[in-house]
Amino acid sequence: MYDNYILSNIKGDWMKIKSLGKLLHKEAKTEKTARTAKDFIIANWQYLFLLAIVILAFGIRYMPARHGELQALDPFYIYRMTDYVLTHNMQFPELDTLRYYPFGLPTPKYEFPGPFYIPAILYLVFFQIFGLSLFSFAFIYSPLMGALGVLVMYFIARELFDDKIAGLFSAFFLAVVPGFITRTSAGFFEKEPGATPFMLLSVYFFIRAYKKNSWIDGLLGGLSLGIMSITWGGAEYMRMFFALVTLVLLIVNKYSDGLLKGYTPIVIFSVLLPYIMPRPYDIMSTASIVPIGILAILLLRYGIVKYNIVKKDQVPYLVPAMVLLSFVGALIGSTQSRFIWDKLMSVSRILLLSKGVMGSTVAENAPGTWGNIMDMFGAKFSGAIFPQLSPYLAYFSVYILMLFGALFLAYEIYKKRDMLYLIPLLWLITTIWATLGYVRLLFLLGPAAAITAGFFVAELFKYSEKARFEITVTEAKRKVNLTLVIVALFAVLLIVVNISSAYVFGNSIGPSYNKFFDEAMTFMKEKTPENSSILSWWDFGYWFQTRGERPSIADGGNVKLSLVEEIARWYTDNPNNWTNYTWFFSRYKPDYILMDYTLPGKYGAISKISSDGKQIIGIMQFRNNGATTQDNKTIYQFSAPPYELWVPFESTGAIAGRPVFLISQNGRYYQKAYINDLCTTNGIITLGNVTSDTMPGCISLTNFGVFYIPPEAEHTIFTSLMFMDGYGLEDLEKVFDNGAIRIYKVDLDKLAS
After folding, report:
1. CB-count burial class (<10 Å; 0-12, 13-18, 19+) for 171
2. Per-residue pLDDT tens for 719-750?
3. The pTM is what?
4. Residue ranges of the domains in the chain?
5. CA-to-CA distance for 679 and 677, rounded, in angstroms?
């Protein structure tokens, strides 16, 4: 019995010990797990911040999705064609009958596949399985590609500067700068989003190939730029950029086998991949010849040094001599060869950023300004959230940081002779130059601005560690680096201000397609016979095709410039010559003509194209600026500073006299003239006699504004269609008018007879 008692106590104690052991083991395991998790976070903290930045980039870019409509113009075409590829066994249409009616357009010969196949493949592989429609995916695609670009930017900066802080801030700035958000936002189903990750990957792998002497990285960089080259024309800039970097490195005698392995695939893939596509690609274009020429110099230099053709002390002068001889040879050759002359002129046009007549009329091709850069790379939009900070927002702007970053890069190149830093410096300089030539290339400036700004902020943190200014705080006499505290506070403000600016900007992005066009496109789709063709200026052709489901005579592709010139000349001709255009109607067979409220603002471009650049005639639009009563008349005042237009009306609503055109400044009027003509649906009405103070031209009062039409545009087919309901033009019937858009039906049979 006693033995049983002892045994039971021993057993009980053993169970307690065992339970205690389990508890201790569990606590040890928990502690080990916590310690492991803590070690993991300490070791990989940068990736947690990077994940937050990528999520932020996607979230800001996704904000315009709330509108439920595609942006701009080209996305409507790219969406339509992507949908066609997905529903036709991943094939382009041999002939797109909705474009350039009645001839159509052989799509494979005019389009590179990237803009359509990249989203189609992503949709099939990753999104269709969730039951998502292509239209819903169209709002995810651009933010997704933009966020991927932000992710790659981190690795570019980290690889280039060997600095995680520089990588994180470079990624952050790319995530929040408006100049890069615009073309990677929801609904902008365009070429740039698809090209973004591949553009940045080409830079990343080029840097790795140069640093690590790696053919694999070089091949990956070349393949990335090759994919970009069949996706977006901006690849030509990147090709020239890599050529410039390589040439400068060679001139300063910083050749390495890594440069050979990084640059050779860049040229081969980015030139040959577009060349083997069905679309004709001019391999002899300047954007191809220059990179190929630089590659030839690189290979020649490699061979000469490898086989000891020149002495070692002569090697630094080898490439400069080759460049000089090439230039002199080209100058001499240009006197004997038209081809060489044309290429020299092409290079000069690239350097001077000159454009042809047609190119100069496209709004996106307008020259950029430093003001555009300040707006799209500034933090001014955060003033809507923090108005008290408005006077100081410039100090937190990326454009300021990138300029300081450029100075620091130049200093590092001078001090350390690290020529790899030439890459971000040349990237920034060339993209600023490109932006000043074409405002649409603000997008290309985004990565260059982000990486130089990120580098500068990282340098501030390094400086704060070196230039320690310590103060003692608390009773324990703990020392604090005041310099680091100041830099950290600046960084926090920098982050908060730029996130708020990006939020406000992202929230402001919306579609151009509005209710007026939606009503007109619904009319096309439901009230016109199938395959009825639409004639208008080229801008909205993609909307006619995708939303109106009707073929257009012209569209934004502008692959037939002669057609655009013919439309421009037709618009600007006298209405009396209407019947002289039977050849035009017989050739293009337009069933309907559409005139929209944006066209008066484009008349300058139309007149420039029709005159082959010899003259630009603008139609001036005035906004309502109030009214006054005088002598039982109401004088309505319309303004387009520094000009004003006063129009007198009787109480019955009839015009009481000649409108007055004035020039004002600071509330004072310096010139006054009377306008006799009024363009109406009943023709041009003369309101008074011609006097010495009469100004030629006419006034049009419409639902969408008051316009002054100069004499050069007064008697034109355009003015008759836009402001006078087609007055004086035979065989037309207005069939739609919502106050902003008019659609006329053309009786082709009567016109032909």
Report:
1. buried
2. 999 999 999 898 899 999 999 999 999 988 88
3. 0.89
4. 2-43, 190-352
5. 7
